[in-house]
């Protein structure tokens, strides 16, 4: 039976438009660090690289290679952890050129280091070598978080973050740092900005 993240992991990927608390387990990801404006060509290349690698793993059985433990699944959505550099944090308004990010796509548990390098070798014909060499296979555990579904343009996210901050105050939670995670459920190239769905999440501690 095909593993569909929209059905199996609703709590993680399809929260409601009201803030909720969640414990996010340790998961494998292909990750790629970058900095600067997300409207840049480099950012687009980062996304292309991660998806190329992810689909290379997904399609291996059709190339005659079936990894141990393989199962049918839908490729997971693109995610990004966002921060600002030191100068960007001092500015009153957001300067997108000062953004620092780590993009990632979740991988099934059967993806090993050996499989990762095999996928890199296959993908080398399709993506830039410098981007490909920068990709890592990481296990990431977010732990206790607050999250919320944001519907609308990325520029209107502060409204949803305000709701999340209010939720934290009401539930005796404290945000750990300024970094936050975004999970992109639509293709921004094909979806009107007012219909974009993005999961917003940040790590918290319970004050109690």
Automatic annotation (TrEMBL):
Read off the InterPro entries from this record: GyrI-like (IPR029442), GyrI-like_CCH_Lin2189-like (IPR008319), Reg_factor_effector_dom_sf (IPR011256)
Under the heading Pfam families, the entry gives: GyrI-like
Name the SUPFAM superfamilies for this protein: Probable bacterial effector-binding domain
Which residue intervals define the domain GyrI-like small molecule binding in the entry?
18-198
Give the protein name, as stated in the record.
GyrI-like domain-containing protein
Give the originating organism: Metabacillus rhizolycopersici
């Amino acid at each position: 039976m095909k593993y569909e993240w929209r059905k199996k992991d609703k709590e993680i990927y399809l929260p409601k438009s009201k803030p909720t608390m969640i414990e996010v387990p340790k998961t494998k990801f292909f990750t790629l660090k970058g900095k600067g404006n997300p409207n840049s060509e480099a950012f687009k290349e980062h996304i292309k690289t991660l998806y190329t690698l992810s689909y290379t793993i997904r399609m291996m059985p059709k190339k005659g290679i079936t990894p141990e433990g393989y199962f049918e699944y839908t490729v997971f959505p693109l995610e990004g952890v966002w921060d600002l550099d030191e100068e960007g944090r001092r500015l009153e308004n957001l300067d997108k050129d000062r953004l620092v990010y780590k993009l990632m796509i979740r991988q099934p548990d059967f993806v090993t280091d050996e499989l990762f390098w095999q996928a890199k070798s296959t993908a080398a014909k399709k993506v830039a070598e410098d981007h490909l060499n920068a990709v890592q296979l990481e296990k990431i555990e977010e732990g206790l978080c607050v999250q919320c579904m944001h519907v609308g343009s990325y520029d209107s996210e502060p409204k949803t973050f305000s709701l999340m901050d209010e939720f934290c105050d009401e539930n005796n939670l404290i945000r750990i740092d300024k970094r936050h995670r975004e999970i992109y459920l639509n293709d921004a190239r094909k979806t009107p900005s007012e219909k974009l769905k993005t999961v917003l999440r940040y790590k918290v501690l319970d004050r109690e």
